[in-house]
# Entry
Amino acid sequence: MPELPEVETYRLELAPALTNAKVKLVEVFWPSIIAAPSAEQFQTQMAGQQFADFGRRGKYLILYLKSDHALIVHLRMTGELHIHPPEVLPDKHTHVLFSLADGRTLHYRDQRKFGRLWLVKDADMVVGRLGPEPLEDNFSPQDLSIALTKRKSNIKSLLLNQSIVAGVGNIYADEALFRAGIDPRRNGNTLTEAEISALHHAIRTVLKLGIEMGGSSLQNYVRLGGMKGNFQDQHQVFRKTGQPCPRCEAPIERIVLGQRSTHLCPNCQS
DNA sequence: ACCACAACCTGGCCGC
DNA sequence: TGCGGCCAGGTTGTGG
# Structure
């Protein structure tokens, strides 16, 4: 589920809630959620840790701990984070429970159990292979051009490749390609510099709007306090199959590229 | 390096 | 009510 804007929303909301909070006890109810170290070691080593800073790289949330370790969270499709008062018990979809010294609990919930948590000394062990951060100032159209123009596969699949740009997922890829007027089936090496420049701008625009709106809530994603995001109300093509294109009124089409649903206006994207 | 496809999981929805 | 099939904000591993 969550892409860069949803993960960034969690980062912004976790920081004031958890800075300096101390972990008293950790319980793992579904061991394969823990990617490293073992679930047992994760429980042991997390006890007594204290949260310091809150970072993000692509779709990875990085919770820096005062011990110099980092707790890394990837929500994959249906991961959620919640902070509850002591009386709220974990439900059947809560797979990792952090009990804090002040009595509150941090719940990792995940209906499909695809998400992963790591406790590592060096965050780069997990996020080191990601491509550039699209919202950093140093991410330029030239960077995107170098990454795309030597690739032959379709541009939609390339945008989902996290080693090319970090953080773009299915929603924001479709929305960016629509705004840039580019057919998602086009091969990377056929894009002109002008098209790549438009795409660079569109990627940054949709990601920033997504963050401003608190992310896109379609099925599972909710913010830390349980509130929905609002960017789904501004989607122009994503899951709008058959509805009129907001620019030209032609019906939006759904196709499949790289096993993923892809939505486009057949008239505005070429 | 690229592609197609399966796997990891659960649950909602649709048609029969 | 039940069952099969399809769908879902992601990633990784396999084999060709």
About this structure: Residues 1 and 77 of chain A are 4 Å apart (CA to CA). The helical segments of chain A are 4-18, 39-46, 124-127, 141-148, 155-160, 170-180, 193-212. Residues 1-3, 6, 59, 74-78, 112, 114-116, 160, 162, 169-172, 215-221, 238, 260-261 of chain A lie near DNA strand C (CB under 10 Å from a C1'). The longest helix of chain A spans residues 193-212.
